[in-house]
Write a structure and sequence with these properties.
alpha/beta, Rossmann fold, 6-stranded mixed sheet, binds guanosine-5'-triphosphate, binds magnesium ion, G_AIG1
Length: 376
C-alpha cells in the first residue's frame, strides 16, 4: 500500500497556551522551547506525518489558509467556561476572514461539556479517534496494522513485525490456562524452548498444582510464561481462587495474553462452559485477550487432517468458543522441535498488543490532554 498525503490540521484560538498544548498533544511532541506567548512559527510537524498549522494572531488567518487551503481539520480551541456567544462570534469571524463560508471549524471542547452548541464540537476523544481514522485510512500511523497482522489472523504474512526495538522493552505475560492434561506445561516448555522447565507428564491426576513463572526473550521481546494448574475443575474450588489471585498479581506488571490450551483430539463436556468460567475468573473482557492454543497437532497430521479442516469440522460448541475468541488460534505439536509454531503464536500476540498500544497511546493522550489543557 502506498503512503498518501500527510494529515494537515489547523489549530486556532485566542489562547496561545491552549493552542500550544493541543499542538503538543496532536504531534506527541513538547513545544517546550516556545514560551507561552511565542507561538510565532506557523507550522509544526512530526514524524507521524501530521502537520499542524497555526498563527499567533487572528490577523494572520488568511496566510494560514493561503499556505494550506485544504486542511483535513480546522480546529478552534476554547477555554474552559467559554461563552457560547463568544465562540459563535469567533466561528463567524473565521468564516468571514477565510472567505470560505463552507469551511468547517470544529470547536475542541473542554472536558465535562455536555451542552449542545450551534457549532460543531469535538471532545479530545473524538478528535483523536478522527485523527487515528485518518492516519489509518492513509496508512500513515506507525501503529497501523495490516489486516493480516490483526488478531484473528492465524496465518500472519509478515515476518515477525514485533521483533523490533520498539517492542523489546515491554514484557508480555503469557498465561497458560486449560483443563488438566491438555498440555499447558508442555506448551510452556515449547514456548521457552526448554523441554524440562515445567513438569509435563502423562498422569491420571493433575500434575501442576501451583502457578509457576519463567522469563525468557523471544525475538527481542521479553516474555514471562506463566504455567497454571487446572482452574476449571469444579472439585478444586477452594484452591482455584488462590491460583486466579496469583495469576492476576503476576499480570499486573504488563500486558497479558491468555493462552487457552485445548487438545485437538478431545473436546470434553467440561470444556463446553470454559469461556464462562474464564470470564468469572478474569472478567468479561478476557476473551479479547485470549488465544486458543491447540495441542497435539501431530494427531491431526496422523489423521490426514489439516488445521483448517479440523476447525471447519469441529463441534458447534467448540466453534463458538473459537468465534468468541476472535478466531485467534494456533496449533502446537509439543513433541516437535521447530520454532515455527512459537513464531506464529508470537505474531498473533504481537497483533493483539499493537491494538492495545494504539488504544493505550490514544487513552494516554486523552489523559495528558485533560492535564495540559487545564480542563480538569
Ligand atoms: N504428542 C503430544 N503429546 C503432548 C502434547 N502436549 C502435551 N502432551 C502430553 O500430554 C501429557 C500432559 O501434558 P502436560 O503438559 O503435563 O499437561 P498439563 O495441561 O500441564 O496438565 P496438568 O499440569 O495436569 O494440568 C504429557 O504426557 C505430554 O507429553 C502434544 O502437543 N503432543
Ligand atoms: Mg501442567
Amino acid at each position: 500500500m502506498s503512503r498518501c498525503k500527510k494529515i494537515s490540521v489547523v489549530v486556532l484560538g485566542s489562547e496561545d497556551h491552549l493552542k500550544k498544548a493541543l499542538i503538543s498533544l496532536i504531534l506527541e511532541n513538547e513545544l517546550s522551547p516556545l514560551s507561552k506567548t511565542d507561538l510565532k512559527k506557523d507550522n509544526y510537524r512530526n514524524e507521524n506525518d501530521i502537520c499542524v498549522f497555526t498563527c499567533a494572531a487572528w490577523d494572520d488567518l488568511r496566510k494560514v489558509f493561503a499556505d494550506n487551503p485544504d486542511p483535513d481539520m480546522s480546529l478552534l480551541v476554547v477555554n474552559k467556561g467559554f461563552s457560547k456567544d463568544t465562540v459563535c462570534q469567533q466561528v463567524e469571524h473565521l468564516h468571514k476572514e477565510t472567505i470560505e463560508r463552507t469551511r468547517e471549524f470544529i470547536v475542541v471542547q473542554p472536558f465535562g461539556c455536555k451542552e449542545s452548541y450551534p457549532f460543531k464540537c469535538y471532545t479530545i476523544d473524538q478528535l483523536f479517534s478522527e485523527l487515528i481514522q485518518l492516519a489509518n485510512d492513509r496508512n500513515l500511523m506507525p501503529t497501523n496494522t495490516s489486516p493480516a497482522d490483526q488478531p484473528g489472523s492465524s496465518t500472519p504474512t509478515s515476518a515477525s513485525p514485533m521483533i523490533d526495538g520498539k517492542h523489546s522493552g515491554t514484557e508480555v505475560n503469557l498465561v497458560l490456562l486449560g483443563m488438566a492434561g491438555t498440555g499447558k506445561s508442555a506448551s510452556g516448555n515449547t514456548i521457552l524452548r526448554k523441554k524440562e522447565t515445567f513438569t509435563s507428564k502423562p498422569s491420571s491426576c493433575p500434575v501442576t498444582t501451583e502457578c509457576q513463572e519463567v522469563k525468557t526473550v523471544i525475538g527481542g521481546r521479553r516474555v514471562r510464561v506463566i504455567d497454571t494448574p487446572d482452574i476449571f475443575d469444579d472439585e478444586m474450588k477452594s484452591s482455584i481462587k488462590e491460583h486466579v489471585r496469583k495469576v492476576k498479581e503476576l499480570c499486573q506488571s504488563g500486558p497479558c495474553v491468555y493462552l487457552l490450551v485445548m487438545h485437538v483430539s478431545r473436546f470434553t463436556d467440561g470444556e463446553r462452559g470454559i469461556l464462562k468460567k474464564l470470564e468469572t475468573a478474569f472478567g468479561s473482557k478476557v476473551r479479547e485477550q485470549t488465544v486458543i492454543l491447540f495441542t497435539r497437532g501431530g494427531d491431526l497430521e496422523q489423521g490426514g487432517m489439516s488445521f483448517k479442516e479440523f476447525l471447519d469440522d469441529c463441534q458447534p460448541d467448540l466453534q463458538k468458543i473459537v468465534e468468541k475468541c476472535g478466531r485467534r488460534h494456533v496449533l502446537f505439536e509439543n513433541s516437535a522441535s521447530g520454532s515455527d509454531q512459537v513464531e506464529t503464536l508470537m505474531q498473533i500476540v504481537d497483533g493483539m498488543l499493537k491494538k492495545k498500544e494504539t488504544y493505550g497511546t490514544y487513552k494516554d493522550r486523552r489523559i495528558k490532554g485533560q492535564d495540559r489543557m487545564g480542563w480538569d
